[in-house]
Design goal:
The chain contains 13 helices and 26 strands. The protein is α+β, with helices and mostly antiparallel strands and 519 residues long. Helix 7 packs antiparallel against helix 8. The chain is globular and about 75 Å long. The protein binds flavin-adenine dinucleotide.
Amino acid sequence: MQYDAIIAGGGPVGLFLACELRLAGSSVLLLEKNEDPSTPLKRGWMGARGLNFPSAEAFYRRGLLNDVKAASIGWMGGERPGMQFTGEGKVSAPPASAPRFAGHFAGIMLDASKVDFSGHQWIIPGPSVGGGMVSLEALECILADRAKQLGVDMRLGHEIFDFTEGTDRVLARTSHGEFEARWLVGCDGGRSTVRKVAGFEFDGTDPELTGYMAIVEFEDLDGLASGFNLTPRGMYTHGPAPGRVGLVDFDGGHFDRSSEITLEGLQSMLQRVSGTKVKLKSVEIATSYTDRSRQATTYRKGRILLAGDAAHVHSPFGGQGMNAGLGDAMNLGWKLAAVIKGWAPDDLLDTYTAERHPIGEWVLSWTRAQVAVIRPDPHARAIAAVIRDLIATKDGTNYFVEKISGVSTHYNLGDGHPLIGYSAPDFEFEDGGRLGDLLHDGRGVLLDFRSSASLAAACAGLQNRLRYVSARAKDDKGLSSLLIRPDGFVAWATGGEADGVVVEQSVHRWFGLPDRNIN
Ligand SMILES: Cc1cc2nc3c(=O)[nH]c(=O)nc-3n(C[C@H](O)[C@H](O)[C@H](O)COP(=O)(O)OP(=O)(O)OC[C@H]3O[C@@H](n4cnc5c(N)ncnc54)[C@H](O)[C@@H]3O)c2cc1C
């Protein structure tokens, strides 16, 4: 059988991309090398991953957000800013007056009481506004269930080790034989086989440090502080779950990550970085990472594409990696499906690299900046002091929160209305429905608040990919109509009379030419 697409890797990015492609009608084979993807490293606080605004919005727009929230360890949104930890991994409910988590930069905490999104004029309060913490295991389960419901062919224990690319197909060689598809997407993580076999350039910087994350039992805390702690010798974290510790060791990234992390090794590093005489009784589980920062120079080579860690690796400081990968999947899915269906304009797939590469580049630079602040030297301490002063101000806090939350994510989609290129506000309609509900089926939306016949006509013959919706919004933000892509980003908008020619050009740019067989 020939599939439309093979996805290598069943991590969060591969699974989400598989859902996106299937939703748009493509046949998908997902190959995951592990027979059993579940591991204690993905569970509870050990596997906890922060989800930013765009990720929450992406799940919301596909009807998955309630499941993600229900499985989350903590969620922020609603009346009070900041995150209060609840649910999985929680030991006891923190009092309502307890400080809430609003993120950190290089271990310097952001004060949730200073967070203020009122300056973001396009945000409409609603279920999608916010972010949270969820374990990798819980998230992968939700996505795998959805992928199964949609009919993705998922094969566990299938490792791709090589492939050949022809003019119109790719032949993948795996531990279980050969599989053929029109496209191959490498979502196979930081050491991606797909990336290496295809020969993508992977530019960047070498590691300076090894980071550790562990669940331990303490014999003697000896004053080990809670939370994120920047010290003269680096950084360590302690909590929020009992026994959860993290630390960074500026060893040039030389620790052999295939070797065991011993109690003695961890204890001595923790003592050195924290400046305490902390004693460990046991190490339940431990893992390591580095700050190696590299990014593929393009995310596409012929019929081979990359997404997630396969396309960009960096340290986990600031919790951006999975978010960047989920954003890749949301951006790529509908475009690749459009090419597969044959209705995409020629250059639609090129916009994937053009839009997502700058986001990945920013993530690399954001994490590098934090390494520079954490470094155990007087210059870094001096920069940290300046940043601490800035973060102590309301504007400073909101600068960092804006970056970390991804609330201002923008693609360069051309000139015109200032909303173009931003995520669409989640308009609430007079009947109580919301824009997010309209995006569940993965089609774009031409939203018309003025019931204009010319806008309805612009969607003729495109119903399988673009939905025309005439409605009244409770707060239309001064807009009269807007074109929203399947990923929820605004391709065109106006607050006045729509120019039929401009609308048609924009519709055809993103959704192709009308199909005469569709009435
Ligand atoms: C300690 C730590 C904390 C982090 N915290 C955050 C956070 O708070 N927020 C955030 O956004 N990110 C965070 N990250 C980063 C995040 O975990 C990754 O960016 C994310 O898991 C990448 O997802 P992925 O699907 O691209 O790759 P992966 O999760 O690595 O999945 C790749 C999959 O491909 C499979 N695979 C590999 N090779 C092959 C092959 N040849 N054939 C078939 N299958 C293959 C693997 O088995 C794996 O299942 C953190 C990372 C670490 C280490």
